[in-house]
Amino acid sequence: MIAAITAGLIGMLLGGPVNNLGLAAAFSGCIFLAVYIAHLKDTYFDYHISGEDKINPYMGRFDGSGKLLSKNDFVMGMIVSSILLLGLSFYVASLTSYAFLIFVIIGWTLAIVYAPLLYNYLGAALSYPAGVAMAMLAGYFIQTGAIGITPLLFAIPLMVMMAGAKIVEDVIDFKTDKKLGKITTPVLIGLRRAKALGYEVFYLGLISLLFLSLIGGIKFGNVYGILAGSVVGGYSYKFKPETGVYILVVGIYIVMLTMFFLSL
Predict the structure, then answer these.
(1) Least CB-packed of 19, 54, 204, 239 within 10 Å?
(2) What is the pTM assigned to this prediction?
(3) Sorting pLDDT into bands at 50, 70 and 90, what band is 64?
């Protein structure tokens, strides 16, 4: 959630000074609810449809019954969250443009289909990063009423970096995913190759940002965050994915925070 909200605020800042803090808060609330709906649907799918909680050693149990919530509880949670999202979205649209609701519809749809997308290697790697990138574009849109080249120069490389981290993360769940019939990247090409590919994709996004910084496509100051992120990413490689992926994510956050503060 933090990554998506941060991306959305970066998008707003790229569009100009944020003079309406209420608008920024409402927009952040929209992002929070969209990601929360995705988490609810994902957990509902794991506990009540796929049975992943029964075979995945990394999924804890929250009570003695082995169920986090009943099916009805999950459905009610998604309905209530969707109603709240709709209300906040109309508020944001009333202050900006009703075309903003297009982003909301796409984001809500992505949240609802998020869990099934994880059964495909492209969906597993790109669904959440694509949502984060879209949050950045939506933030820029509510400030300017358009989708310019500026947010795309940030959003696309960031999406690529996060996709690399997701591939590395999928290495952790290799055995479970294979049992469930998920065709993630590690299942498709093997553990070692998947880890290497994940880091290659991560650095592809990072190098793209570095190139854009050097040619003036984005602020040169981003170089410092990019270099720091590359060092952290390289350091994470020597660890097993269970630990390394979290260090890799720290590298992504360093890059994002640099973007954020340079956009202020």
Answers:
(1) 19
(2) 0.91
(3) very low
